[in-house]
Amino acid sequence: MRLVAWFVSLSLVFLLVWVIWGGHWAQWTDVNAVAAALGSHGISVGWAGAILLVLDLLLPVPGTIVMSALGFVYGTIGGGLISLAGSLAAGMIGYGVGRLCSEKNAIRFLGEKDYQKGKLLFQRGGGWVVAVSRAVPILPEAISVTAGLLRMPVGAFFLSLLCGSAPMSFVFAWIGATGHDRPWLTFSLSFAIPAVLWSAASYWQKKDRIATM
Predict the structure, then answer these.
(1) Cα(203)–Cα(201) distance, integer angstroms
(2) Letter string b/e over residues 15-35, b meaning 16 or more CB atoms within 10 A of that residue's CB
(3) How many degrees, rounded to 5, is the angle at CA 76 between CA 96 and CA 202?
(4) 44 Cα distance to chain centroid
(5) 42, 138, 182, 183: which one has the fewest Cβ atoms less than 10 Å from its Cβ?
(6) In a structure prediction context, what are the per-residue pLDDT tens digits for the chain, which is 213 residues long?
(7) CA–CA dist 47, 32 (Å, integer)
(8) How far apart are CA 151 and CA 3, in angstroms?
(9) Contact 64/172 with Cβ under 8 angstroms?
């Protein structure tokens, strides 16, 4: 019960930040305007875009628009790689924040029973949760911090983060580079590709474990 309360409370904190600061980003809905804004601060568009994606951990940055703007400027591959770097950095920082809390304090905060249940949950199915959630607002930040708090293995977390972040990064960079406007296709790909990638990655992980036994 404490684990559920923790996750809901953390999600509400991120949601509150969106409510308070979301209006400041309302004008960032045009890819061309965002690309111009990114390049108007004395640093490269790439660095500006990557930094904004990292700040998405704390601020209501329109990440998909930034990714599209990077695709508009650098093309599908270049924009996708920069977007991926920013998204991975944000996820790993969130995970690191969770790990800053010692296991002893995490158990004290969540209770022994909830902590062990959550830890087991993230060990068994955390990869799916991390990978698929990257396409959903609010949840990625809360899940990254929670994964760190519950000591999800860092290798598994990074692999699932990569499986979820890469499709989003390149799909939205492609949209920015080509000017396509297909929301349902984008939405579907942002969920389907991470699921396929994580299925393949977890299969090979299990196969490697069996081979080394």
Answers:
(1) 5
(2) eeeeeeeeeebeebeebeebb
(3) 45
(4) 23
(5) 42
(6) 677 777 777 777 767 766 665 555 555 555 666 666 666 655 577 888 888 888 877 776 778 888 888 888 889 999 999 999 999 999 999 999 999 998 888 888 888 888 888 888 888 888 888 888 887 777 788 889 999 999 999 999 999 999 889 988 998 888 888 876 655 555 555 556 655 665 665 655 555 454 455
(7) 17
(8) 14
(9) yes
Q: Which amino acid is at 14?
A: F
Helix (H, G, I), strand (E, B) or coil at 1: coil
Give, in order, the Cα–Cα distances in Å from 55 to each of 94, 132, 169: 11, 21, 16
